[in-house]
Specification:
Distance between the termini: 30 Å
Order of helices and strands: HEEHEEHHEEHEEEHHEEH
Number of strands: 11
Radius of gyration: 22 Å
Shape: globular
Strand content: 15-25%
């Protein structure tokens, strides 16, 4: 896949709002005020398929039987019917019939270039995010979804870019599926959203106007005890290709020892410019101020 901001943005919006129920057809339905989002989305997809989406408007009546209140909504529906597009989307993890509760990040996104990750966040927050301005003047962002795998994947995506986010306890809504929420409140996470250029004019304006603190917290962890076992058991050193860093349980994992005996510690390793310091920090410069991720 030739990853780019545009490819990431399309998959982000699709992950949040698309319906993959028709053969060779992908549908995205949004409220009338989000019509510009579909125009932007279609302008990208037209470069790939050479033909525009079918765009329709209608009124949808809610009877109040679900978790939303009764009323009438003006809906804009975009439909792309292109076999090549459907095959591409399916190959990336969203085949026909992929419903919201079983969605996850598209294949390869965590290993994709930074611009593609930012594009995914731009599309996903544009589709499924809520951005609000509190009375205190602080801007907060949240994304909700019925797929725990997708919400945790987005958390890993932020972490790979150098920011921590928080997943709250799922909201139980019997007989409906639980709703998972990711809170995007830290200064670093909001900086990333600004850089991503959220694919929704109203939300992007709120993110861009956010007043961000320059304060950075450095969290120290205290070892409270050691437990020794006389049993001999096999242990394993897990690595990934490239620079060996990966995320696990919300932490950046890296083993400096794999770079040679002369670099047996973080502080002993050298960056290309000759400076000493953690390999993960100079491989991923955005993490240098995010010690809590290590």
């Amino acid at each position: 896949t030739d990853w780019s901001w545009e490819v990431g943005a399309v998959f982000g919006y699709f992950a949040g709002d698309a319906h993959f129920g028709d053969r060779n057809g992908i549908r995205v339905g949004v409220s009338h005020e989000k019509r510009p989002d579909l125009v932007t989305l279609d302008s990208i997809i037209q470069k790939w398929t050479g033909k525009p989406a079918g765009i329709y408007e209608y009124q949808f009546k809610r009877d109040g039987s679900g978790p939303v209140t009764a009323g009438v909504s003006n809906v804009v529906l975009a439909v792309w019917k292109d076999e090549g597009l459907s095959q591409f989307v399916a190959a990336m993890g969203y085949p026909v019939g992929t419903k919201s509760p079983v969605r996850s990040l598209p294949f390869g996104l965590l290993q994709a270039p930074r611009e593609a990750k930012l594009g995914f966040l731009a599309g996903y927050v544009g589709a499924d995010g809520s951005v609000s301005l509190r009375k205190s003047g602080r801007t907060t962002t949240r994304v909700d979804g019925t797929s725990e795998a997708l919400i945790r994947g987005v958390q890993d995506l932020f972490l790979s870019l150098g920011a921590r986010t928080t997943i709250g306890a799922p909201a139980l809504r019997p007989p409906y599926r639980p709703l998972f929420s990711l809170s995007i409140t830290s200064t670093r996470a909001m900086e990333i959203l600004k850089e991503a250029r959220v694919m929704n004019d109203k939300k992007r304006a709120l993110v861009d106007s956010a007043c961000l603190s320059s304060f950075r917290r450095h969290r120290d962890a205290k070892v409270v005890g050691l437990d020794f076992s006389p049993e001999l058991v096999p242990v394993y050193d897990l690595e990934v290709e490239g620079e060996h860093e990966f995320t696990a349980g919300g932490l950046i994992i890296h083993n400096c020892q794999v770079y040679g005996a002369e670099e047996a510690s973080c502080t002993a390793s050298k960056a290309p410019d000759g400076k000493r310091g953690c390999r993960a920090c100079w491989v991923h410069p955005e993490l240098r101020i995010n010690y809590s991720a290590h």
